[in-house]
Design brief:
This protein is mainly alpha-helical and about 100 residues long. The chain has a single domain, classed as Helix Hairpins. It is built from two helices and no strands. Helix 1 packs antiparallel against helix 2. The longest helix is centred in the last third of the chain and has 42 residues. The radius of gyration is 21 Å and the shape is rod-shaped. The relative contact order is 0.23. This is ESAT-6-like protein. It comes from Acrocarpospora corrugata. InterPro entries: ESAT-6-like_sf, T7SS_ESAT-6-like.
C-alpha cells in the first residue's frame, strides 16, 4: 500500500538521478584511464627512464582497482534503478 505516492515517486526519481551520476562517473573513469599505458614499455616511444618505469608499475597495480571501481559504480547504478522501479510499483498500489 502506498502511503504517500507523491513522496514515493520523488524518492524513486532521486534514486534514478543518483544512478545517472554513478553511470556518468563510471564512464568518466573509464575514459580517463583508457588511454593510460599500463603494459611494460607501453610508453617507450615517448617516455623512457626510471620515472616511466615507476609510473608503468604503479599504473599496472592501479588498473585492476580502477576496473573494479568502474564496475562497482555500474552495479550501484543498477541497484538504484531496481530500487526506484520497486518504489514506482509501490506508488501505484491502491490506497486503502
Amino acid at each position: 500500500m502506498a502511503d504517500n505516492p507523491h513522496r514515493i515517486l520523488q524518492e524513486a526519481a532521486a534514486k534514478e538521478a543518483l544512478a545517472r551520476v554513478f553511470e556518468g562517473h563510471a564512464g568518466e573513469l573509464e575514459a580517463v584511464f583508457r588511454g593510460i599505458p599500463v603494459a611494460p614499455g607501453g610508453s617507450a616511444n615517448y617516455w623512457t627512464g626510471a620515472a616511466a618505469g615507476r609510473f608503468a608499475d604503479e599504473a599496472q597495480r592501479l588498473d585492476k582497482g580502477m576496473s573494479e571501481l568502474i564496475e562497482t559504480c555500474r552495479a550501484t547504478a543498477a541497484n538504484l534503478r531496481r530500487s526506484a522501479e520497486r518504489l514506482r510499483a509501490t506508488a501505484l498500489l491502491p490506497m486503502s
